[in-house]
Write a structure and sequence with these properties.
Strand content: 15-25%
Distance between the termini: 97 Å
Number of strands: 14
Strand order of the largest sheet: 7-8-9-10-11-12-13-14
Number of helices: 12
Length: 536
């Protein structure tokens, strides 16, 4: 009898063990498959970039793919964690600490590799955007600098920026690595949350536990992780429609603020999911403080990247920095909202035992998937702005400034016509039939309010004061126009206005506001000067 009982017990244990092993294998391969699908874009492009770099020594600029840095390294690290998770599980209580430490190490090693990939810039012109002076470029530049160009720089950062320019392409490069504060912070948060979710689900399945007390934390962790991943996809594919201007548009301000709130809340809810059974002060206070801290860190990173400034969400006292602080009242509100959302979600989860259930998780995941899909869809559907929008002929609509040293003052109509195409700017005198040709290099770069005043000494006379750029919300340098002696003109856009700025040896010589004309074409100008219009 005892032997029969022992045999029955042994058979039952064997069946349970076989069942656990089967469930573990299913989750193991499922987690790898899901991560592989989600990682397809950065991994495929990252592998291509790595292969070209290894075989050719460097990439061509057009071979550099956005969103590989740092997401390829994140994906490789997560796949390593999922692949090695059965090995980590053998370490019992040290499984997750060892696993996450290994994953962080993999991330930094792979990320360092991608950041040091070389990009060919030989033959390109290196333009100092603060002085508009061109220099010959080195043979290569690192992908680290290229990635910094994808992080929008404010006008205040322009003094340390450089631009690589070729005949057809222009690459804005920031010689600064402070953008990595955001990249590394969000990368480490994402890695920790995804790895923690995988580890928690694997443990629950291995123990074959369907206890709601253990399931609810996993639901909260899954929802907060999915929300953060979706927002990161949306942010990278749309950049929240942010502009390089110091003051952001209402839409960009709203989306950026929501991202900061969601990031802080996601971290707070994730941590709070582990504390649901603890005392009230611990299960709410610690997560709320952590969400506040993460949101503050995002602002600190932005301030360091912008050398003590922040992007502003608007104008007026509510959007201006407080005395002694870089943060404005609206920024403090964003920080508090992150903590408030964390408190709200955790409080509801604690009071309503059936709130965080399968149904809630499915609805949340569908919404997150929709947010993640909308970003790339908008990006693909939005036509890319091109320099071709500038191409055409223009006349002087108004003289905005003339140097007091100039003997030529435009007060009315002029016979001059300005024409821009892909590589040249021509200035034609329609009365004399003469024409001058200049090389033009397009480079849309934000400028600050002292863009012109910093180049000039004090003005003389009421007609010679420089225009006040503070009245314009969007201020860009669009192109540099040069001849053999160096830069001669700068083409600027001030909101909807197109300005041509002539550079003299003593600073700004003249500023003309241009308007497009349809009465003359580039072919007309070339023919009037006795030149043959080139076919395209």
């Amino acid at each position: 009898m005892n032997n029969d009982k022992d045999g029955s017990a042994g058979t039952g244990a064997d069946k349970d063990g076989a069942m656990n092993a089967k469930v573990d294998r299913r989750f193991y391969f499922l987690s790898l498959a899901v991560l592989a699908v989600l990682s397809a874009y950065p991994l495929i492009n990252g592998i291509q970039m790595a292969w070209i770099s290894i075989t050719n020594g460097a990439l061509e600029p057009e071979q550099y793919v956005r969103y590989v840095v740092p997401y390829a390294a994140i994906c490789v690290a997560l796949l390593c964690f999922a692949a090695l998770h059965p090995v980590f599980m053998r370490l019992k209580r040290f499984a997750f600490p060892v696993g996450i430490a290994t994953t962080f190490l993999v991330f930094f090693v792979v990320e360092r590799f991608f950041e040091t990939i070389q990009i060919h810039v030989a033959g390109m012109t290196l333009i100092d955007t603060a002085t508009l002076i061109p220099y010959p470029s080195n043979a290569t530049a690192t992908a680290d600098s290229w990635q910094a160009a994808l992080c929008i720089a404010s006008p205040e950062m322009r003094w340390q920026s450089l631009t690589y320019a070729s005949l057809d392409n222009f690459y804005y490069v920031m010689d600064d690595s402070t953008y990595k504060i955001h990249y590394y912070l969000i990368a480490l948060i994402l890695i920790t949350m995804v790895c923690g979710l995988i580890h928690g689900i694997a443990r629950m399945l291995h123990l074959r536990s369907d206890d709601r007390a253990q399931a609810k934390p996993l639901f909260l962790q899954g929802i907060s992780t999915a929300a953060l991943v979706a927002l990161c996809v949306f942010a990278n594919s749309t950049a929240f429609f942010r502009q390089t201007a110091y003051i952001q548009t209402p839409l960009a301000s709203l989306l950026t603020g929501l991202f900061f709130v969601a990031l802080g809340a996601a971290v707070g809810v994730y941590v709070g999911s582990f504390l649901l059974e603890r005392g009230r002060h611990l299960r709410l206070t610690l997560p709320v403080l952590l969400s506040l801290g993460i949101t503050i860190l995002m602002y600190v990173g932005e301030s360091l990247m912008m050398k003590g400034n922040l992007y502003r969400f608007g104008t007026g006292w509510f959007f201006e920095g407080l005395p002694g602080l870089v943060a404005a009242p609206v920024d403090i509100l964003v920080i508090l909202l992150a903590g408030g959302l964390t408190w709200l979600v955790l409080s509801r989860a604690q009071k309503h035992m059936r709130w965080a259930n399968t149904r809630t998780a499915i609805v949340a995941l569908v919404l997150c998937a929709a947010v993640a899909a909308v970003g790339p869809a908008i990006s693909l559907a939005t036509p890319k702005t091109a320099d071709a929008e500038i191409f055409g002929c223009y006349v002087v609509e108004k003289n905005l400034y003339t140097s007091p040293l100039s003997s030529y003052l435009v007060l009315g109509e002029t016979p001059l016509v300005y024409s821009f195409d892909e590589s040249t700017c021509i200035i034609a005198d329609t009365e004399e039939g003469s024409i001058r040709s200049f090389a033009i290099e397009y480079d849309k770069t934000p400028v600050s309010t002292d863009e012109f005043s910093s180049r000039n000494g004090p003005s003389v006379g009421s007609l010679t004061y420089l225009p006040n750029l503070a009245h314009f919300k969007e201020r860009y340098l669009l192109a540099v126009i040069s001849d053999d002696s160096g830069p001669r003109y700068g083409l600027y856009r001030m909101d909807r206005e197109l300005w041509l700025v002539e550079l003299g040896g003593v600073g700004i010589w003249s500023i003309y506001r241009l308007e497009r004309t349809d009465t003359v074409t580039r072919a007309d100008l070339l023919q009037s000067a006795g030149l043959v219009f080139p076919s395209r």
